[in-house]
Amino acid sequence: MENYNKLRRPPKTALRQIEGGRLSGKTDISPQWRYEIMTEVFGECGTGWKFKIERMWTEPGADGVVFAFAQIGLQVMMEDGQWSEPTPGVGGHQMVVKESAGLYNNDEAFKMAVTDALGTAMKMLGVAADIYSGLWDGSKYTDSKPAKKTETKKTPIQEMLTRFTKAKPRLNKHFGDDSIYYAGLENLGVKHANKIKKVAEGEKCLDWYLEMVKESKDDKNTKASEAPGDDGNSFPLSED
To answer: From the CB of residue 27, how many other CB atoms can be counted at a distance below 10 Å?
Structure first.
């Protein structure tokens, strides 16, 4: 990753924001900076890095437009004095361009396609990686990668209240409404589950709810006031 990290961040002077067309808002990277950073890291073109044009061709587009394409192989000199395997790159540009006044012939289309292909291949080595990785926000760099989202661990009371939320639809289904749910909460002296402060009380209340569901599958008219607690009376408010 040593070379990759040396190549990844262009200076602001090598960047230009595209302001029109389909690529509006994207960042254009100076080709000359690409060649400069490759030379700085690997050595001069021809001895430290080199490329070979493997193919150039054209393809027709709509309304008389013609595209020029180029395929190149990029190699760098390795520490053992051997050339690396070629890194492929394909680029393209319009050779016949449709403008308001008609068709326009671009005599630099193949040169621009080769430049595009070089950028594609160099990207694989890490050249301007920060741009492609989204570390550019349109006006400045972020000095580090976006922080990973971390899940906040729920407290015991939050976990218990989550169970309450999941249990309520089951209670409503078995009893026809939410009366049993709120009756159990009233036994704790609260009107809503998120008002419960003691985990032990809340868990007892929830366990009682679920036991009521289990025992009343065949009797949906069971009332909360009729449900016995552990001592044969109403649901206890605490463990005391």
So the answer is: 16
Tell me if 148 is assigned to some domain.
no
In single-letter form, the type of residue at position 74 comes to: L
Q: Find the length of the chain.
A: 240
pTM (predicted TM-score) = 0.54
Question: Could you tell me how far CA 117 lies from the centroid of its own chain?
Answer: 27
User: Can you read off the two tokens belonging to residue 98?
Assistant: 């449709």
Instruction: Indicate whether 209 and 107 sit together in one domain.
Output: no
> What is the sign of the dihedral through the CA atoms of 22, 24, 27 and 29?
positive
In a domain, 32, yes or no: yes
Q: Which of 99, 98, 14, 109 is nearest to 58 (CA)?
A: 109
Question: In which domain, by residue range, is 168 found?
Answer: 156-226
| Spatial separation of the C-alpha atoms in residues 240 and 236, rounded to whole Å | 9
Give the residue-averaged pLDDT of 101-116. 91
User: By the 8 A CB rule, do 73 and 54 touch?
Assistant: yes
pLDDT-based confidence at residue 138 (cuts at 50, 70, 90)? very low
